[in-house]
Amino acid sequence: MTQNALFAPATGALTIALFVLPQASILEVASALDPLRNANRHLGHDAYRWRVVTPDGQPVPLTCDIELPSTGDLTHATGADALIVIAGYRLAEVATRPLIRDLRRIAPRFQLVGGIDAAPWVMARAGLLDGYRATVHWEDLEDLATTHPNIDVVPDRYVIDRNRATIGGAAAATDFMLHLIRARHGAALARQVAASFLATVRNGSEPQIAPEAQDPTLDPRVARAVAMMEAQIDTPTPIAAIASAVNLSPRRLETLFRQSLGLTPGAYALSLRLAAARRMLTDTRHPLSEIALRTGFSSPSTLSRAFRRQFGYPPGTLRG
């Protein structure tokens, strides 16, 4: 992790502008702002300041159907030390060419430009990550690496490389902010803030999903099998091979899956692939043939049949 001057003992207040795109998650906004608010509370003064900006300067609709108030459009971010973009779903609609152009133009005005969840995609489209090490939400890691070979894509929780920061999602945003607080105001304050949220201070280099950490009630062997399935969406591994890898017979693995998840291993793996296909249909402009390839289906027609059985409508419905 390459450090940035903002991650040094504080000599003054730090101002962060959050550029929130439509269909972002309220959890990601809160995960970015509440640690800063809590740090101010413990410090007794406003060491961290923030403003929320949106593409048109109007309240922005979030995935939970709540509209987040805005200070103004992207130009109102000028003067902040850092610009953090938050993006979630429907990037093909919300990350418009004018928005990409404006982001590219304004980026040099900040000491740090970052992105949370799907926002590294937006940064990549603006050319802000070429030659950088970066991460993105785990569901989009392979797609980002394939589409932007000039970016060194890694599966870390968050990455800081010079004047760029990329953050995998809401929980990782809390991790990132705790790192920032620790760097500027010390480990004791970071621990106090983490304790306020019953959180744990975690390193950015940790994986976004640690198999045993996903669900403490899940049998560790099932967790490892699930992690294998998630890592091999495009080239599904036979269930017998997965069972062998976690030292179980196929029948025993099926029993544990039914007990833990209510599905057979095969059905669960298929649900992961179809969920990935639906996400690509919603958030990208990839043709159906490419989506089928990236989700492990032999042809678009095979994907279409499985998709209709799972969701009750054909893939084309999501493309309008």
Strand and helix map with partners:
Blueprint: E1 14-20, H1 26-43, E2 48-53, E3 60-61, E4 67-68, E5 82-87, H2 91-94, H3 97-106, E6 112-117, H4 119-125, E7 133-134, H5 141-147, E8 152-153, E9 158-161, E10 164-167, H6 170-185, H7 187-196, H8 220-231, H9 239-245, H10 250-261, H11 265-283, H12 288-294, H13 300-311
Parallel strand pairs: 1-2, 1-5, 5-6, 6-10, 7-8
Antiparallel strand pairs: 3-4, 9-10
Description of the structure:
With 320 residues, this protein is α/β, with parallel strands linked by helices. The protein has two domains: 14-196, Class I glutamine amidotransferase (GATase) domain (Rossmann fold, 3-Layer(aba) Sandwich), CATH 3.40.50.880; 211-319, Arc Repressor Mutant, subunit A (Orthogonal Bundle). The chain is 44% helix and 13% strand. The protein has helices spanning 26-43, 91-94, 97-106, 119-125, 141-147, 170-185, 187-196, 220-231, 239-245, 250-261, 265-283, 288-294, 300-311; strands spanning 14-20, 48-53, 60-61, 67-68, 82-87, 112-117, 133-134, 152-153, 158-161, 164-167. Strands 2-1-5-6-10-9 form a six-stranded mixed β-sheet, sandwiched between helices. It has a two-stranded antiparallel ribbon with strand order 3-4. Strands 7-8 form a two-stranded parallel sheet. Helix 1 (26-43) links the parallel strand 1 (14-20) and strand 2 (48-53). The longest helix is centred in the last third of the chain and has 19 residues, at 265-283. The mean pLDDT is 92.
